[in-house]
Amino acid sequence: MNAWAECATRAIERHDDGAARLPEDPDERQRQLTRMGNAAWAAGLSLLMAGGDEEARAWLLRAAQRYRESWPNAPAGSWGRPIGAMKSRLIAGDREGALEDARWALEAGAAKSESPIGRYAATLAHLVRGEDAKARKLAVALRERDDFPQFVADALVALSASDAGAYEVAIRELLGDFGRREDFLEDIPVADTVLALQALCARRGFAVALESPQLPPTARGQASA
To answer: What is the value of pTM for the model shown?
Structure first.
């Protein structure tokens, strides 16, 4: 068993252990569901890195489901959950599911949030829905903030404008940023944001071939994730 397969096995064990011990208390339950979502996400990305695409897809979809299940009792402003759900579905190639999660984020008020993470959720949602003018307005505002990652904002602006040249510069900078990071969710060093944005890029008719050990084999040296 290679290292990525071992990571997947441990993540699946964490998810299943959480499922066996779901508490009744609403707050504790939403926390546990979020941990399960993170574990399913880790399993999906690890399997993708190991080359198990079909099993990876199933776990990424399970991650999106767990994030959605955690939402009703989540604290206000828990925008990481719809973001995680949309990214998981984009990477898994589940367009219909991503559209549903985009609607969830927007109906929950992400576009009106004062936080950058909320505005990011709204920007991503509009991009998923093909509402690029709305996405661009939000993305430009994010790029002007000093509390949001510049490389992500640049890529969002370029995507919303269908500017292939600017997108290539931004996505390569973002991938390089992932390569310099030391901390990753669930300790899974995979450029998940790059994979999600590459999926959105492909739907706009342009693409960038990327190479990195932080991308799965199927996403290296080709146009889309």
So the answer is: 0.95
